[in-house]
Structure formats: C-alpha cells, structure tokens
Amino acid sequence: MILLSPPLPRSPPTMIESFLALMHRGGPVMWPLFILSVVSVAVSFERGVFWFKQNGPGAKRGFVLLMESFRRGDRARVEALAGTSDTVYSRVATALLNDGASDAVAVGSVETERIRMDRCMATLSTIITAAPMLGILGTVTGIIRSFELLGGGGAMVDPRAISGGIGEALVATASGLVVALLSLFPFMGYGAQRENTLGRLETMIAVAQLTFGTAPPPRAHHEPSTDPNYKHERAPAEIGAPQHV
Fold it and tell me: Is the CB of residue 176 less than 8 Å from the CB of residue 133?
C-alpha cells in the first residue's frame, strides 16, 4: 500500500497578483479606469497641499490678524503681515494696499486668485463623469460576451464562461463607481474651501474699502534738489516756448 503525501498548501497570492487578476476579470476598460484613479489621487493630493497652505491653522490665524489690522487702519501692520506669508489673503491685501481698494483692483486680484483656486478642478470633474461611463461600457461588453456564448450553436455552454462575462460586467461597474467616488469627495471638499475663501476675501475687501477708501495711496514726490550743480531738465514744450522778458 502506497501512502500519498498530502498536497502542499498553496501560498496566498501576492498583492500584485491579486491586482492583475482583478484587472483581468474586469476586462479592457480596467486599465483606463486605473489611469484615471492615479490622476485623481495625484490631483487630490496636490489640491490638498494647496488648500492646507491657504486655509491651514497658520493661514487662518494670519487672516484674523490681517482683518484686525484693516479694521484699525494700521497700514504698516497690514504690509508687515502680508509680507511674511504667501497666501491668497496676503496677496490680495498687498494688491489693495499698493493699488487702492477700488472695485476694479478688488475684482482683478480676486480673479487672479480664483484661477489658482480652480486649477485642476476641471480634471476631477471630468473623472467624476467619465469613470462611471467607462464602468458601464465594461458592463455592456461583459453582457455582450455572455449572450454571445449563449447563442453560439446548440452545444452545451460552460456555465463558468457565462459567469465570467457577468463577473466582468460587475467588476467594471464597481471599479468605475469607486474611481468616481474617489474623485467626488475631494472635489466637493475643495469646492467648499473655495467658496469659504471667496467669502473671506469679500469681507476683507469691504473692510479695506471702508477703512482706507478706494483711492490708491499717494506716491512719494521728488523734492527739488538744492545741489547747485543740479540741472533741471525742461520739458520739450518748455524748450520751444518763447522767452518773455
């Protein structure tokens, strides 16, 4: 009597093997979905770093100090605070001090910052829309493959082949939804940060207009030189004008 040794237990699949198996089960649309997920994570991380710099604890504390200085009319303090940080609030405050708090200056500075705030948001919006559509495309192709197997002649069809097409459809749909959700939550969060920031900027502009007015600050005038060797440059109109005695 020959005793057979029990089969050796198979080692569990590695993470890469599991990932490749999932990509194979989901069909060809899984690779575009994977690329979209990588782009979504990269954009979300970049925007997260940006908004942490603009609305983190230090930036909010700086905004509060700027508002207090604007209300007191302390121009020197506002300039000092704006020069020590590089946030949306400090940049707009610098523009208001240098060019005046007129509506044109306020709108121009806010629009410049709005471009920075909206960077890559269209990419996240596109991924939110495109990922479920790609998942539905994978669903359709998987169901088509299943029906092709069912209608392929009178021979017996392996049920595992049919279930493979259905599994492809379900995996693709689930993957598309996951990628869309991966982009949706950061998109909504950063949109809320944008609206809150614009609201703070509007408040700061209103306070600056009430405190400093809308006219630009006076420029320094050059006093006439007392140096006897200083030669006054006459304007062209003065040079050609007749001299009256």
Answer: yes
| pLDDT tens digits, one per residue of 24-55 | 888 888 999 999 999 999 999 999 999 999 99
- Distance, CA of 166 to CA of 141 (rounded, Å): 10
| Each residue's pLDDT tens digit, 125-184 | 999 999 999 999 988 887 877 777 666 655 565 666 566 667 777 888 999 999 999 999
Helix (H) or strand (E) holding 79: helix 75-83
Query: 40: how many CB neighbours lie within 10 A of its CB?
Result: 23
Rounded CA-CA distance 166/145 in Å is 9
Question: Within a 10 A sphere around the Cβ of 131, how many other Cβ atoms?
Answer: 26
Residues 127, 229: Cα–Cα separation, whole Å: 71
**Residues near 109 by Cβ (< 8 Å), separated by ≥ 6?**
91, 92, 95, 96
pTM of the model: 0.74
Residue 164, both tokens: 């493979």
Euclidean distance between CA atoms 25 and 53, whole angstroms: 42
How far apart CA 128 and CA 145 sit, in angstroms, is: 27
Residue that is written with structure tokens 């940080």 in the block: 85
Distance of CA 211 to the CA centre of its chain: 33
End-to-end CA distance of the chain: 141
Radius of gyration of the chain (CA): 33
